[in-house]
Design brief:
The complex is a heterodimer of chains A (323) and B (367).
Chain A: H1 2-7, H2 28-37, H3 40-57, H4 59-66, H5 75-78, H6 103-139, H7 141-156, H8 159-170, H9 175-206, H10 209-216, H11 221-229, H12 234-257, H13 269-276, H14 285-312, H15 318-322
Chain B: H1 3-13, E1 16-31, E2 37-53, E3 57-61, H2 68-75, E4 83-88, E5 91-92, H3 98-107, E6 108-111, H4 125-135, H5 141-154, H6 171-183, E7 189-193, H7 201-218, E8 221-225, H8 229-235, E9 238-243, E10 246-252, H9 253-258, H10 263-271, H11 277-282, H12 313-317, E11 323-324, E12 333-334
Parallel strand pairs in B: 3-8, 3-9, 6-7, 7-8
Antiparallel strand pairs in B: 1-2, 1-4, 4-5, 9-10, 10-12, 11-12
Helix pairs in contact in B: 1-7, 4-5, 4-6, 5-6, 6-7
The chains are: A mainly alpha (323), B alpha/beta (367).
């Protein structure tokens, strides 16, 4: 009997007096941002990267404040009596290198190169990867076969050998030209793996009924590509690009370490590591400063990329689930 | 002209809107890494004739893999046909391209099975329903918004939900969004590909009644594909039964359910659930032996013969024509050499002919 009465409408709890809470529709971006904000590690990484960007932007200011332009040597103050570089101190905050240049100023200029090359080549690679991947996956047939094989060939090329070959062939001496070439080389060797993932995504999207629905409405291929396919790739492209940036930064450092990246005297973390490795036994800061900066930057980008992936992918609810 | 007179008008004339003539759709199975070679073909639709008259609902039933959905996609022009003709208002749509095809797409719309897959999750409902206006350049800006909201109201959605994403709606509401999108361009024919099979039973009834109301109001013609026989009976004027890419029997809905002539239709109907438990107790089910043979290499003669309780030698070689059998109405067509007689109990029959699986041996198909 008590069971019965519970089912009767009279037994239901009275309606709450206050007006019902309005359900506010949120865009996918708002939802992603709400998830992202809970990821402390990603937030810290974002802060580190912002600081790194400020450090890089302030490069000329560091040079002004210390009075040490990046390409000038200060043999009197920077080198001791034995000709060894001085360590971190009052004049040279992060020490000097073996030619008597300020490591702090050079590291700041190196940060510019790393961030610019990392971000630009990752963007270029993702642009190229999306274009090739979408075309390959969407058009299919012979186009797909040709493009997919080109991507396979690109992945099979030994990139360091090609990069060294290009650098020796073109004998570039200007900083801008070498910067451009470095960005192009990195983008060329990164787009293929990107394009392959996008191609797979597009092929699976193509099977979705909403693509068929658009087609039956009379939408053109171009419209389907831009209205239905590309917006559904935003999450993947964002995640892949953010994870491609640290890879590109390391790629640039590798090329500059080997002397085929950005030309001297423009400093880059990679070339600083290369120069410092000769004398690191007496001057540890020559290796530690660029290495720590490189590590911090790439680690932050990776953690940020993970955070973005967790935020954009509704299936990975582990951050929310933990709380 | 009011909606009521439009309905009467269509009922009086009942001119042919769609005529499917000998339509064949084969999907090639290709293998090879660089040079793809065709190794076999799936006979999805294999010679179907169908007439759909203006204002009526033609139901198509059949098991999974019988080619229902492929036929639907051929009629809407989503799949190019391998051979045969599909006349829509007298024009062969299989040869259309460019502007002609776009105009045809305005007249024929489709409602899809999966209410989750058929709406782009990244777009707002307003722009999804407004898509047909954008594609055909019918309305833009405030005018488009007004018409989209009218459509939302028409299908029973709250027009204020214009800016929501599909994920914020339930399955039934999403199917209503699909219906609104299909209605936007005022099509003449709507092909419904299992529009309710993904929904709860209570929601199914709502969506079906919505479709029936809209048909009355706008004089729509439906091709209604389903595997649920009671749903098809409820909505259809005429029903076609498909088996392995061919139509086995076609008749007025009541006629087919009362007097099925093809053994396959009889077996299908005997498997349908009956609401009355006493009746269900009495009903004897015709249990078909084995699975549907592979459409890659369909059986010779009558496609149903390996599973047919009435099959005889002739059925294995001679393919039956779809024709009017003795004692049937003029629109009751059956493709069978030995049609079921009224009162005959098929459950007691034993097949004279058995055939092993026709699945051909294929090497691993590379994706």
């Amino acid at each position: 009997m008590s069971m019965m009465s519970e089912l009767e409408p009279e037994a239901l709890p009275p309606e709450p007096a206050e007006p019902p809470k309005r359900v506010v529709g949120r865009t996918p971006f708002q939802l992603a941002w709400a998830r992202f904000k809970r990821d402390k590690l990603a937030l810290v990484s974002l802060v580190v990267l912002v600081l790194m960007a400020i450090f890089a932007l302030m490069a000329p200011l560091w040079a002004d404040w210390t009075g040490h332009p990046y390409d000038q040597t200060f043999p009197k103050t920077a080198l001791d009596a034995a000709g060894q570089p001085v360590g971190p101190g009052k004049d040279f905050w992060l020490g000097a290198d073996q030619l008597g240049r300020d490591v702090l100023v050079r590291a700041a200029y190196g940060a510019r190169i790393s961030l610019v090359v990392g971000i630009l080549s990752a963007l270029l690679a993702s642009l190229l990867g999306v274009a090739v991947g979408v075309l390959s996956g969407f058009v299919g047939g012979v186009t797909d076969t040709v493009l997919a094989r080109i991507m396979d060939i690109t992945l099979a090329l030994p990139y360091l050998l090609v990069a060294i070959m290009l650098a020796t062939t073109f004998q570039i001496s200007s900083v801008t030209a070498s910067l451009t070439l470095t960005i192009l080389v990195i983008a060329f060797f990164s787009f293929a793996s990107f394009g392959r993932i996008i191609r797979g995504q597009v092929m699976s999207l193509k099977q979705k009924e909403f693509i068929e629905a658009a087609r039956s409405l009379g939408a053109s291929n171009t419209r389907i590509m831009f209205v239905d396919v590309l917006p559904n790739l935003i999450a993947q492209v964002t995640v892949l690009t953010s994870l491609l940036i640290p890879t590109s930064i390391v790629f640039e450092a590798t090329l500059s370490f080997l002397g085929v990246g950005v030309r001297l005297p423009m400093p880059s973390w990679g070339s600083m590591l290369g120069e410092g490795s000769d004398v690191f036994q007496t001057a540890w800061w020559l290796l530690v400063v660029p290495a720590v900066l490189l590590l911090l930057t790439t680690l932050s980008f990776n953690l940020l990329g993970d955070g973005i992936r967790d935020a954009l992918d509704p299936r990975s609810d582990r951050i929310i689930g933990k709380k | 002209m009011t909606a009521g007179t439009a309905g009467l008008h269509a009922a009086a004339e009942r001119e042919t809107l769609v005529s499917v003539q000998g339509v064949v759709k084969h999907f090639p199975i290709k293998q090879g890494i660089v040079f793809k070679k065709e190794v076999a073909r799936v006979h999805a639709v294999d010679g179907v004739d169908l007439e759909v008259r203006s204002g009526e609902t033609v139901g198509i039933v059949g098991e999974s893999g019988s080619g229902k959905s492929t036929l639907a996609r051929c009629v809407t022009g989503l799949h190019p046909v391998t051979s045969g003709r599909i006349l829509f208002e007298g024009t062969d749509i299989t040869k259309l391209s460019g502007a002609g095809l776009k105009a045809f797409r305005k007249d024929v719309q489709m409602i899809f099975q999966d209410p989750y897959g058929s709406l782009n999750p990244r777009r707002r409902v307003g722009s999804i329903i407004g898509d047909p206006f954008a594609i055909h350049g019918l309305a833009s800006g405030a005018e488009r918004k007004k018409r989209v909201q009218e459509l939302m109201e028409l299908v029973g959605l709250n027009p204020e939900h214009y800016n929501r994403f599909p994920a914020e709606f339930s399955g039934g509401q999403r199917q209503r969004i699909g219906v609104a999108r299909a209605l936007a361009v005022r099509p003449k024919l709507i092909v419904c590909d299992e529009p309710v099979s993904a929904l709860d039973v209570s929601i199914q009834a709502q969506v079906i009644n919505l479709l029936k109301d809209l048909q009355r109001e706008f004089g729509l013609t439906y091709i209604f594909i389903a595997h649920d026989l009671s749903v098809v009976r409820y909505v259809s004027d005429r029903v076609g039964v498909m088996y392995l890419g061919r139509i086995g029997e076609a008749a007025a809905a009541g006629d087919l359910y009362e007097r099925p002539r093809h053994p396959y239709s009889a077996a299908l109907l005997s498997a349908a659930s009956i609401a009355d438990p006493d009746e269900a107790e009495r009903a004897e089910r015709i249990v078909l032996i084995g699975d549907v043979p592979s459409p890659i290499d369909p059986p010779s003669g009558c496609r149903f013969h390996p599973r047919c309780p009435k099959a005889e030698e002739r059925c294995t070689v001679d393919e039956p024509e779809l024709e009017v059998k003795e004692g049937d109405a003029a629109d009751h067509l059956t493709a069978c050499h030995f049609p079921v007689e009224p009162g005959e109990n098929l459950a007691r029959e034993h097949a004279g002919i058995r055939q092993e699986s026709t699945e051909p041996e294929l090497p691993e198909v590379e994706q």
